[in-house]
Amino acid sequence: MVTPALPTDIPSLWQATSVARPAFASASGDQSFDVAxxxxxxxxxxxxxxxxxxxLSPVVLEANGIxxxxxxxxxxxxxxxFRLGFRDIASRHGIETARRMHDxxxxxxxxxxxIIAELxxxxxxxxxxxxxxxxxxxxxxxxLKTEAEWLRSALADTAISILSAEEVAAETGSHGFTGGMLxxxxxxxxxxxxxxxxxxxxxxxxxxxHERSPVLSLRREGAGVVIETPAARITxxxxxxxxxxxxxxxxxxxxxxxxxxxFRSAMIATEPLTGTPGAHLLRTGRSYTETRRMMRxxxxxxxxxxxxxxxxxxxxxxxxxxxALEKAMVRQFPELAEVKVTHRWSGLVAMTLDSxxxxxxxxxxxxxxxxxxxxxxxLASGIGRHVxxxxxxxxPDLGLITRQPLHPIPxxxxxxxxxxxxxxxxxxxxxxxR
Length: 434
Description:
The protein is α/β, with parallel strands linked by helices. It is 34% helix and 24% strand. GO terms for molecular function: oxidoreductase activity.
């Protein structure tokens, strides 16, 4: 059996500002646990936490280091939204389903604060400052007004309000928006410190975590599953797959790999802004997104401005993607023209066919939870307790997350050109103002 070559750590602002990393050995020898969790990100770690609380013995097997994947590379936005909007959910599946999904989002946000307090994750620097969607033209502002009114009337969400162009400009420092929709739910976080804090909390509780331990194969044997890593043979009663966009690292997670479209998202971070012309920008500490289909997002992290977006196609970083981000950032914030960009990095977002996360069973011994579609900080960690429920025989009702199966992507081999085609269409629609 050939051991795959593992990628190295990805340099980022989060890596440069992280807390001390807890150390975990690679798996070795023969071991036995109640549950083996594949993936050491938010979902895998919180699942192990709640399995332990239920009296089971879990082991977390991470192919690289804790925080190597999306949990340590994302923009650090804590949100309870789904890529499929609540109004769309209501029109397709009914208002009660939309209400359940909305509640799940709020529960996931609340869970972030709860588990930070429970495990004492001080370095997470969670700030519940909310978010602001910035309309890039009059058409999208009208859409935001309609959405806000629907959320207030249909879901009784009073955390939503509409801001004028002047109010958005005063808050962001950018005069390129026609208005925006403020949502006071959620906030921002240091994503790598958050996942490292989760791992440290589990380690303190005696839960087994192994880094640099890619799962090479799974096979049923007797009443359980045998999991092979390069240096270990682990027997478990059940397995949880929590590998999300990185489900193609080994063949062991092939059963979910073809249901996910990895979409690369790139980020840049500036030097500290104090003493520069950009010092006044983004003064509330919220996260911000624009309404274009090929969305850009931005926020402050400490005294730096982070700017990110989709469209960094391919399997590796490309200088052209970072250059495009820098140009977009300066167009939006001309004050940053002479400000140095100090960090550039990217990671994969797990898109699904129906734009929703999925929790379910492959069979009586294997559970999966994947597909957060770019909103995974709160959802991926909040779902861990529900994964544990499913493992222990309960039937959690997470609305569409558990009611709909994880569908394979048709013509999966053509996913990369298909992504480029869709992205090109989105860019055209953005360019003509639709």
